[in-house]
Amino acid sequence: MRPFDYRRADDARSAVAALDERPDAMYLGGGTNLVDLMRLGVASPELLVDVTRISSSAIEESRDGGLLIGAGVRNSDLTSDPLVRLRHPMLVQAVLAGASGQIRNMATVGGNLLQRTRCSYFQDVSKPCNKRLPGSGCPAREGDHRNLAIMGYSGSCVATHPSDMAVALAALGAIVHVEGRRGPRTVPMPGLHRLPGDEPDRDTVLEPGDLITAVEVPALSFATRSHYRKVRDRASFAFAVVSVAVALDVADGVVRDCRIALGGVAHVPWRAELAEEALRGSPATATEFTRAAEEELAQARPLRDNGFKVPLARNVLVRTLIDLAEAS
Amino acid sequence: MTTTAAAYVGSTMDRVEGLEKVTGQARYAFEHSPRDLAYAVPVPAAVARGEVRSIDVDAVVQLPGVIAAIWHGNAPRLSTPENAELAVLQSSRVAYRGQYIAIVVAETLQEAREAAQRLRVEYDAEPHDVELRVDHPEMYRPDHVNPNYPTDTELGDPDAAFAAAPVVVDAMYSTPAEHNNPMEPQATVAVWDGDGLTLYDSNQGASAVRDTLAPLFGLPPENIRVISPHVGGGFGSKAAPKPSVVAAALAAKQVGRPVKLAVTRQQMFAVTGYRTPTIQRVRLGADTDGRLTAIMHEAFEQSSRIHEFAEQTTTPTRMMYAAPNRRTTHRLVRLDVPTPSYMRAPGEAPGMFALESAMDELAVACKIDPVELRIRNDPAADPESGLPFSSRNLVACLREGARRFGWADRDPAPGVRRRGRWLIGTGVASSTYPTYRVASQATARCEPDGTFTVRIAASDIGTGARTALTQIAADELRTSPDRVRVGIGDSAMPSAMVAGGSMGTASWGTAVVRACQELMEELDRRAGEVPATGLETSADTSEEIGAQRRFARHAFGAQFAEVAVDADTGETRVLRLLGGFAAGRIINPKTARSQFIGGMTMGLSMALMEESLMDDEFGDYLNHDFAQYHIAACADVRDVDAFWVEEDDPHLNPMGSKGIGEIGIVGTAAAVANAVYHATGVRIRDLPIRLDKLVR
């Protein structure tokens, strides 16, 4: 690991100013991903600005019934919060499905959103990677991509976003609060992360120096009936092969509303808008669920070795919808 | 002097070093820090084949803290080793990606790592070939397979018998490359004192490290001392010295200071050996009642360009089941890959996956219960050598295992049992591992105060060997274990074979027993009088082991697995694993149980998860960390249990024991795969059984 400077920020404004001055600087939250990347030589900031003391670790209820989750909230604290547990079970399930207890004790909500891909080529500095070193190439396309994207990828990058939490937040339509050079602003969740296009090195729409200060989860009454299901290669400690976050509102056997996002399939937590649209107003039956899932997945263009993710995503989505419909 | 009639062999005893380990007092190789220490970080080759054209060492020696950058242009010369993997920095050739091509030494580990990362190397790269395939034009027949078995065997006319058989199985199976990942990666602290070299090293045999390194550095063996009292696992990866120990010694020599070198987890995937991938064809011919008439087993494997390691994949098929017509073969291809090496039950583990999967397929084809099929084909004597078995209790393991597992009510129909969203199935497989011992030496000593010290350069890699030897010695010395100190893990002690091949306890134990018997006889002659300076005896078992009668000596076992497969996703979870073993006399039930269930856990991991992915473009194993190379974790291991059938086998060694380190893994992968077939109706012949092979 390269030697680096370390500074603890006093407030958000000075943190942003620090990064503005030093383009070689990065924010440090829980460090559960960044420090690994520094050890691997993937990230080599010369200054770390520790934001853990200035980031809010509070979870507050807003007047309209939504939740404002401070960026500094530890993942494990998020999962034990009574309000979150009651209103957004799938968010709790998603966070609990990720990492280990020890890592969840360190990881923060803000940092979790900014996790970088676990594509093997990205993590190995002895190999090319357009995300790590723009213009160097993408060996994953012809190499190992079993666990990489089936949707929304480009010729220059087929990586997937690794976060579980972000999938649930994308389904919930969360709004990210950001402090930037020009002051505070908000970024709606499906829209924070970006598809690779020809700039795969940019994971999100955030600008240099932008600091995530909070995540707002709007009120969504039927999210009390929601579920996050993660499919992985072993029973624990593994990134999703495919995951789904689903909230379902069924009345009299008809889908009134739903929220669906997929993980492990794209460069972003994939909000399944086509499936959502297909389901609204449809009978809550296995046939309709399958039709909706297939409509969403018709966009899939799997790579040589990850075609199995298409039926896998379909099956998991359909099963999760059936389970939620039966429970309601 | 206290004498006691208690038999400590066969009784449960806690590890003698348990307290040291759990309190952190036990020192491992990396925890030795002599004065004036420097840190070495090796630089891996970034091409899979070619020549190092230039290395810009001048640039990195300017970096803060850097003491030296060593490469083939300035490295100390070594004698040519038998295994070219150990000719560290002796030539500009690159045999595989990840091979050490330079070593950076610095004042701190961070400085050394940073400098190693910045070292600029230019190569003349050549096209590489890293893909194992059956029809590879360079596939050849090695002279022998590990350690010294015939490459091929044949008996009767297997082709004709197979062609005439009313029931046949003819299937291809494959197992991937797999990497040993002990908790403690290889690590060495090397200290030169003139022509004397001391190595604090993590290995499976201090004597072997000394004997391999001495000629390499042109030293008499007595000038090298290898100290390794505690070793955090090995599973075979530390059975023979790897490039890292040579690199540490070489770096220390170059800089004239003690040097510490630890292999990183990532680097383990290139330089510490691995289980070769295999492709296997098994053909079984049988009567309609399941009696085998023909067995044919062909294995295709890889080795590196620089060293031949030919794994003995089909050897268990030579003695497992009766059949008058049989053939086993091994073929090897040398690729631009790291050299494969020992990994828990080399040969037996992948070989028995294929054979025991094929036996399950035969049971299905014959409509015979798979337990019954195996019993029906149990041979009276070793089918190929004709030698009598010293003891063979496979049938007892199968029957008792079936009883404990609840096999009797099994519905043979595949893919029909559902519990919620899970498909449920059960499977069985046999296991076996050869029982050998190798000559070793030991000393036994008694003091006037009635305490004893036994010394042998044995190695405890976490198996409980130190404890087992203490029990063995206590019985022979007719005293209690708390009066016996067993010294191991130091090449200054009497030479011992490595902890490997499930031979450690049998080999060391024999030497310990003989040394202790000598001592007791000497004490008897002196009527129990111990001189003030103490009394010491020694033993060397070369003659005894050379003179032992020929028997087919093997341990046996049977594995039973219950699995659940998610009908929507293909996720497979092992609900229950039960292993029954016949492995002679069990010296310590507590540590033995750990060995059995540990091996079975590794077998579960082999069945469902482990796979080192070769990247064809770059020619290296890509998934080189624990986030990507999946090993069974706590949540994957639910209910694993083992029992044993005690054997009284007089043809083994003074303890009557068989090795138990490796038999636990053998057969487990097949038992799981057979259970997956029973659950789903889908036969997976290529490990690991990941969900992508089952999702529909």
Automatic annotation (TrEMBL), chain A:
It is an enzyme of class 1 (oxidoreductase). Keywords: Hydrolase, Oxidoreductase. Residues 1-222 form the FAD-binding PCMH-type domain. It comes from the Bacteria. InterPro entries: CO_DH_flav_C, CO_DH_flav_C_dom_sf, Diverse_Substr_Oxidored, FAD-bd_PCMH, FAD-bd_PCMH-like_sf, FAD-bd_PCMH_sub1, FAD-bd_PCMH_sub2, Mopterin_DH_FAD-bd. The keyword Oxidoreductase applies. The keyword rRNA-binding does not apply. This is Xanthine dehydrogenase YagS FAD-binding subunit. Its EC number is 1.17.1.4. GO terms for molecular function: hydrolase activity; xanthine dehydrogenase activity. Signal peptide: none annotated. It comes from Streptosporangium lutulentum.
TrEMBL record, chain B:
GO terms for molecular function: xanthine dehydrogenase activity. Residues 23-127 form the Aldehyde oxidase/xanthine dehydrogenase a/b hammerhead domain. It is an enzyme of class 1 (oxidoreductase). Its EC number is 1.17.1.4. It holds the Pfam family Ald_Xan_dh_C. Gene3D superfamilies: Aldehyde oxidase/xanthine dehydrogenase, a/b hammerhead, Aldehyde oxidase/xanthine dehydrogenase, molybdopterin binding domain. This is Xanthine dehydrogenase YagR molybdenum-binding subunit. It comes from Streptosporangium lutulentum.
